[in-house]
Amino acid sequence: MTRTSHLGACPLDCPDTCVWQLTVEDGRAVEIRGDRDHPFTRGALCGKVNRYLDAVNGPDRLTFPLLRAGPKGVGSASFRRATWDEAIARVASGLRATIDRDGPEAILPYYFAGTMGHVQGWTMGPRLFAHLGASRLRTTICTAAAKAALRSLYGASVGFEPESIVEARLILLWGANLVSTNLHQWPFVQEARARGAHVVTIDPLRTDTAARSDEHIAPLPGTDAALALGLMRHVLDAGAADRAWLDAHTVGWPELADRLADWPVERAAAECGLDVEVVRRLGERVATTRPTAVRVGLGLQRHHGAGQAIRAICALPLVTGDFRHPGGGALCMTSGHYVVNEGAVVRPDGMSAPAARSINMSRLAAALTGEADPPITSLVVFNANPAATAPGQSRLREGLLREDLFTAVLEQRWTDTCDYADVVLPATMQPEHLDLHSSYGHHYTTLNLPVTRAPGEALPNTEIFRRIAAAMGLDHPRLRDTDEDLARQLLNGAPVSFEELRERTYARTTGVAVGSAPYAQGGFPTPDGRARLLDPALNRHGVDPLVGYTPPAEAADPTNAAAAVRRLAERFPLVLIAPAGRFFMNSTFASLPWHLRKMGEPRVHLHPDDAAARGLVDGSAVRVRNDRGSFLAAVAVDDATRPGVAFTYKAYWARLSPGRATVNAVTAVRDTDLGGGPTFHDTRVEVEAVIG
Ligand SMILES: Nc1nc2c(c(=O)[nH]1)N[C@H]1C(S)=C(S)[C@@H](COP(=O)(O)OP(=O)(O)OC[C@H]3O[C@@H](n4cnc5c(=O)[nH]c(N)nc54)[C@H](O)[C@@H]3O)O[C@H]1N2
Ligand SMILES: Nc1nc2c(c(=O)[nH]1)N[C@H]1C(S)=C(S)[C@@H](COP(=O)(O)OP(=O)(O)OC[C@H]3O[C@@H](n4cnc5c(=O)[nH]c(N)nc54)[C@H](O)[C@@H]3O)O[C@H]1N2
Ligand code: SF4
Ligand SMILES: [Mo]
After folding, report:
1. Ligand 3 atom at shortest distance from the alpha carbon of 11
2. Residue 10: CB within 6 Å of ligand 2?
3. Is residue 384 part of a domain?
4. Measured from the CB, is residue 19 less than 6 Å from ligand 3?
5. Rounded to two decimals, what is the model's pTM?
6. Does residue 170 sit in the same domain as residue 235?
7. Contact residues for 417 (Cβ-Cβ < 8 A; gap 6+)
8. What pLDDT is attached to residue 439?
């Protein structure tokens, strides 16, 4: 028996991008653990990925291609086994038929971060579809609002160096549940604390992270920009605005200072449903503590006012001059520090990529049911499970059931989305294919090499797309590039070579050193190096060019809100947020026995007052509903939330849930103010007992 050990990258959509060590016996992965030497992984993976081999070696892996031979929408019973040649021919003829009949824009590829790998995720598939002239996918489902806001404010998704947070003396974990979703940042926060930092979590829920912080502040969902404006006003009143730094390195401070006249802490507190003293005290801490680090999560940008929320929060450290100091400033995502030029790899020089319309992935339900004109008649899904994870689930199901829609799904296991496919193609998992990873939570690039045999006939996405291209008679050499070719192209211009990564697995690649303050002297990636508190370009998007506050669409406190929200709140008194569950990764793992056991059945967590008002107790079976749809859950009476705010963990599978619907049956197809992102946490519902 041969026993070998290999370093590789965790591919999941998580800011930590851990380096793992796999032990392989006779071509099969038998052990997994975190790499001890990696500066961010530091020897441990998270709980859910400690059990990753359940997913890799599970009996439920897809091992051969499947073609639909019965009715749509009923599941694997409708399918029969096919050879690869037969299945690829079916996809090629489906896409060709669409092109001939409806034009190439009637094809939509739908993909996201099932793997964060640039090679299996974001290159060969998008390259093929760009070459065909298919509709381009706007990949908005997760971070679009934050990205657009950061591009406007800082020029790109950049911020303080995450390992340097140990230097901070005040840390605000703002809409970020580190213990569940950014676990490897947590020890750095703990180290800062050991050196005397005060840690405040700002989250409507008392999450594990909030419970372990020095202080927890629970604003009403969707009101963060108001809180940030109130804090900036307090800083201004306290004489703590860093005028010299603001003058040198920002534009728009005079205008913002004027606006702050409208944001006394009393107004901010009322908008956020907080005690005014809580806001004042936090304002005082921010005014008097250098460096202050604001680690900004993505949860708070799943509200209609998301763009303004991210701008306002990330403006706070500009006002205090915190970027002067190592460990000071704000950080939402590190992605903008990397030089991985995906655009050039997807549309290489000399390869045709006809202009095509864009379809916003967060609007898939609408796009498939009338919004797209001409209609989409071919859909190719990979690295995503929209039937579970996209908003507007009932409407999406209607769209996916259309008899005139041809759907191919590349997957590792049978998901909700496979239920609606015409062709299901078995894909490899991370130990079985090559990939290249940057990160959105640290500054290292990682190469992942294939070290085990794929089960059955499973193939990498890239190979499946190469075969589809060949079967369609496309003979451009760039459509035959190998995975290694793609990795090398992605590294073009990066400060590390393929050879080095093959040798060392990972390398620090952003040019931002640990312990540095990259924007101490300004130099933001905007044309003039200044951060933009005022950005006239936003007028084009109908967004206030000045940092400000956009209220949530549904979640606002009805006593303060517009008439439409008040009327909605009479029928649907509870705000429902659906954050990440600790043992799932979106819908990944949500079908595996160990992970499901850890997460339990779908539950809606209600504050004791809200449960009592409805005569509900722990375990009561309920329907959670609004005008868009409903799903079934058990009640968890839970004082981790505030009255009027309910929550349930995202991304259970519909096919495994009672009533075959999940929380996304009640979430809206509605854009954020900036970036066209979804508004998963900006939802009103009522909860009522179901009998029997
Ligand atoms: N275990 C696990 N890890 C994950 C994921 C997973 O599903 N499971 N998903 C991954 C993905 S895709 C992503 S994008 C990241 C997301 O990582 P996070 O940014 O941490 O995302 P969420 O859990 O959606 O939201 C974080 C927190 O924001 C809070 N929140 C909701 N609305 C508001 C608000 O209006 N204001 C404030 N201040 N807080 C609010 C929620 O209660 C939640 O505790 O995590 C990744 N990591
Ligand atoms: N209600 C609610 N819904 C949400 C959210 C929320 O907060 N609340 N969060 C949203 C967020 S932040 C995100 S990022 C989205 C994520 O939603 P999705 O992008 O749909 O992510 P997953 O559910 O993890 O599905 C990824 C799928 O890709 C497959 N996969 C992984 N690697 C490969 C591969 O190499 N090849 C192929 N062919 N398949 C692969 C996995 O098996 C898995 O089924 O969900 C969103 N949905
Ligand atoms: S999911 Fe995140 S924390 Fe867990 S192993 Fe992967 S990268 Fe690390
Ligand atoms: Mo995400």
Report:
1. 6
2. no
3. no
4. no
5. 0.98
6. yes
7. 381, 384, 385, 386, 387, 388, 400, 409, 411
8. 97
